[in-house]
Amino acid sequence: MRLAKRSVLFQRTSKDPTVRLQHGAKWPVIEALAVDKLWENGFGYLLIVRRDLEGGLVFALFLVDVYCLGVKDAFWRTGTTADVEDLIKKQRPE
Known about the structure:
By secondary structure, this protein is α+β, with helices and mostly antiparallel strands. It is 33% helix and 36% strand.
């Protein structure tokens, strides 16, 4: 039992994304967004938000070139609903 708890704690606190996101494909998708006219413009952002086992949000943002290079850049972060909303606002053109 102690080993299982230690394993969960290690996964939750690790800075290594291969450890932190090891079971991420099984977490439910809460939100999936793409910029308007992504396919017409050929370039833009995709956002995927999942809920982890503890109930927290894990989100990833991908910069995509749909006609040439595919994913050009990506990052992930954990946060709150307010963090996700703030990220969405920052990605919208003014």
